[in-house]
Amino acid sequence: MPQNASHKLSHSTKRPLVFGLAGMTAIAAVLFAMSSTFSSAAEEAVVIPPPAIDETVSATTGKAVFAGGCFWGVQGVFQHVKGVKNAVSGYSGGAKDTAVYETVSGGNSGHAEAVEITYDPKIVTYGQLLQIYFSVAHNPTQLNYQGPDHGTQYRSEIFATNSEQKKIAESYIAQLDKAKVYGEPVVTKVSGMTAFYPAEDYHQDFLTLNPTYPYIVYNDMPKIENLKALFPAEFSADPVLVLKAKG
C-alpha cells in the first residue's frame, strides 16, 4: 500500500492507529456523510455468473491465493465467507527477503499484496471463492491499481496452487470476458504459486479490528455489505480471525 495520506497513514512506523479512537470516529462520520457524493471511492460489486467449471472436491482442505489491491479489504471479505478456515494477509510473487511491508510498498519487489485462504471445499468451492473475488473483493479491470492505491503491488493476480485451479481461473476469466459483464476486459493475471509470505501482525485482521479507520470505512466496509447482499448463503456474520487463532 502506498505511503501517502490517502491510505496507510503511518504504516512505515508500524503504528497504524495514529489519530486515536475519538479522532478516527469523527473522521469516519465525515466520510460516511460524504459517501453519497463520492460513492466511487469503494469499488462497486458486480453481479456475475458462477464459473462454468469448478474443482473436483476430494480433499477436506484447500488453499487459494488471491491478490486484488489492499489486502485489508480482500482479507476482510474472505474472513466473512462460510467454509473459510483462515484468511491471511501477505505477499506473493517476489523473493523471501523482500517480503516485508516497507520493501513491498516501494513497488519494485515483484510481490503483490495477497491473501492466502484456507477453506473447506465441501462447504465453499474454489469456483465460489473466485466468484466472490471477481464480484465483491476487487475490480478485475483495473491494471496495477485498486481505487486510491497505485502500483504493481496492488495488481489483480491469482496464484494457482495446482493445475486444476489454474484451469478453472483461466476458464472463468474467458467466460466473464465473453459475457462482457464488466464492459471492459479482465486484466487479472493467473500465475503458478511459488510461495506465500504472511504479512506483519499489525496488518492481520485490520478491517475487523479497526472498523472506524477512515480508509476501511470508505473503501472496505462497503465490500462486506456487498458480500452480505449478493452472497447471503455464503456470508458469515462472525469473521475467522488470524490473531485469535494464533493466540
> What shape does the CA trace take?
globular
Give the total of beta strands: 8
Average pLDDT works out at: 86
CATH topology: Peptide Methionine Sulfoxide Reductase, Chain A
Strand content: 15-25%
CATH H level: which superfamily?
Peptide methionine sulphoxide reductase MsrA
Helix and strand element order: HEHEHEHEEEHEEHHH
Would you tell me the structural class of the helices and strands?
Answer: alpha+beta
CATH class: Alpha Beta
**Biggest beta sheet attributes:** 6 strands, mixed
Which range best describes the helical content: under 10%, 10-25%, 25-40%, 40-55%, 55-70% or over 70%? 25-40%
Architecture per CATH nomenclature, i.e. the level-2 architecture: 2-Layer Sandwich
Helices, by number, come to 8
Q: TL;DR?
A:
This protein has helices at 20-34, 71-78, 101-104, 126-137, 163-179, 206-209, 214-230, 242-246; strands spanning 62-68, 84-92, 112-119, 145-146, 149-150, 156-160, 189-192, 196-198. It contains 8 helices and 8 strands; from the N terminus they run αβαβαβαβββαββααα.
Give your account of this protein's structure:
The protein is α+β, with helices and mostly antiparallel strands and 247 residues long. It has one domain: 2-Layer Sandwich (Peptide Methionine Sulfoxide Reductase, Chain A). The protein is 33% helix and 16% strand. The protein contains 8 helices and 8 strands, in the order αβαβαβαβββαββααα. The chain has helices at residues 20-34, 71-78, 101-104, 126-137, 163-179, 206-209, 214-230, 242-246; strands at residues 62-68, 84-92, 112-119, 145-146, 149-150, 156-160, 189-192, 196-198. The strands form 2 sheets. The protein has a 6-stranded mixed sheet, with helices on one face. A hairpin with a 2-residue loop joins β4 (145-146) and β5 (149-150). α2 crosses α4 and α2 (71-78) packs parallel to α7.
